[in-house]
Amino acid sequence: MTQDTTQTYDYIIAGMGAAGLSLAMRLKTSNIPFNKILLIDKDLKNKNDRTWCFWTKDADAWYHSIVYRKWSQFEFISQDFRKVFELNPYSYFMIRGIDFYSYCIEELKEDIRFDIRTEEIRGLSSEHNLGVLQTINSTYQAKYLFNSAFRNNLIHKNDINYVQHFKGWVIETTDNFFDVNLPVFMDFRTSQYQDCRFYYLIPLGPNRALVEYTGFSPNALPSEEYDKKLHHYIENMLNIKDYNIVEREYGEIPMMESDYVNPYGPQVINIGTAGGSSKASTGYTFYFIQKNTNSIIDKLEKNERLVDLKRSKKYKLYDSVILDVINKNSVPADKIFTSLFKKNNIADILTFLNEESSIWKDLGIMNSVPLLAFVKSTIVKIKHLYA
Fold this sequence. Notes:
The protein is α/β, with parallel strands linked by helices. The protein folds into three domains: 144 residues, FAD/NAD(P)-binding domain (3-Layer(bba) Sandwich), CATH 3.50.50; 96 residues, D-Amino Acid Oxidase, subunit A, domain 2 (D-Amino Acid Oxidase, Chain A, domain 2); 74 residues. The chain is built from nine helices and 19 strands. The strands form four sheets. Strands 1, 2, 8, 9, 10, 11 and 19 form a seven-stranded mixed sheet that branches. The radius of gyration is 22 Å and the shape is globular. The N and C termini lie far apart (55 Å). The model has no long low-confidence stretch (mean pLDDT 95).
């Protein structure tokens, strides 16, 4: 007689990255009644594999105790424009991956309602009004299964699907080179290669900083290309000759015009990048994960039916237009971003990029970029997206 290995939970969270752990932490402190939640992934993250930087007005978010750095200003630099922006009412935050993973896992381990397991996930499905997760040896089921472990795309002809790719070094210098109060949000003093390239500098101390080379393009670059660009920037643009590389990070974030789809049925809810939380035109993810997590918590507290979150058609169109302009090289990417930052109030830009702006502010933003190229791409993308 075969033993039944099916185990039942209130909720299952598949994937313990930013999305899965954020949802678990919010469930932990919510008013939602539950007895047991399963968190499952093939392994626990134990390396500082990424850094999240984002802006927010929220002064009381659950993650504030692990914010590594916080700034009230940042600098934008291009070939012909340079400005320090005061970000009020926003603040710019940095969270290190290792701090995030360690904090969440330790907090959740102390709560007996959470069962943390490391197993390879073999399948997801919806059966008999339950979300079902299968591993090699076991089957788990719950009312809802939240998936950030698998991504499925519906690719349409002529979709523009880029990736934000980056390599970063934490460097230490002999002398004090860095203003600890002033991160460099974007530095476009580099060739654009008919897509989008820029540097990024986060000061961690007077003689310590994270320096990244970032691209938006169809594909990532060979590893040595990032190294070459980083060496050039540090030695020739920052004029730092004596430094040590103490940490390295590399990442690729989807910038997808194509839709993420859910083939697993109504009891499986996609979250994180799988649920469309990576903004197509910028790759920013962490802030949108928090917004989408808050939406899920709100619906569960109200006992409302959950469905996969859908992005606003308005912002989806905006992202598609920007990708189309960059892809066609109608206007060089550095000129687009320079126009954006040169002609707009910084709070309006950040609100727009966080997808929280009014249509009137949107029109002001649109009027600040090279109009002809954007109008042509808007017409093309309206036909493409709404055909």
